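If you are new to this repository, start here. Below is one unmodified record pulled from the training split, so you can see the exact layout before writing a loader.
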Amino acid sequence: MDAILSEVQNGVMWITLHRPEKYNSFTEPMALQLQTELARAGSEETVRCVVIRGAGKAFCAGQDLAEVTLRQQDPDYSIADTVRISYNPTVMAIQNLSKPVIASVQGMAAGAGANLAFCCDLVFASSEAVFLQAFGKIGLIPDSGGTWLLPRLAGRARANALYLLDEKVTAAEALEMGLISRVVDAGQLEEVVRSTAERLASMPTKGFGLYKKAVMMGAGQSLEKQLELEAVLQAEAGKTEDYREGVAAFLEKRMPNFTGQ
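And here is the target side for that same chain:
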């Protein structure tokens, strides 16, 4: 059984974490397969938005610890190997993908699974969803970008509490903290995510990609450098077909027909 499923519908690539019997916990082959699908999403022009979701009750329980335990029998193995192979490239693939990525969280998101969701551009969560760092209980630190993302999203004090106290966070609490984008009634999550993803897939994809690039680069440079970057990227956006279409539609008082070019 494939641990990652994907399909493209109406410009949206739906990627499903598919180990429901293990709460969609990651193994290295599963992570590599996810990276492959994200790369495919970036290269195929017909894909203009990506949704990552989990099969079954959980979104993702993080790392499959049985895999790590087995690999630790090899004296040359380090947990850093798993972080560098399974998680770091996945997080960067999501962040660098020049298309919007939505996490659709229907249940538990724990450890790397929680931070994987938080690194997406939009996080829609069921009212029944729960988030948990879980690293502290086994003596590890947050990975998958957790030490970078959590203080920026929720503030340092809350990030400290999320890790040190390791308490479950409800979807409503996560929304209030700024960790996620929207809470949706459990029975309406798929419908709301699908509607949003298909709307994003009909919008100016190139501009979205340039925006993501600006935000990522802005996290590590001065305001002066960021202003110049905005000018450079705005010039690039102004050369797109979608910019020309958007302006023409505005002047002609009609709905634009964006192609993602």
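Two things worth knowing about this chain: The chain is about 50% helix and 15% strand. The mean pLDDT is 96.
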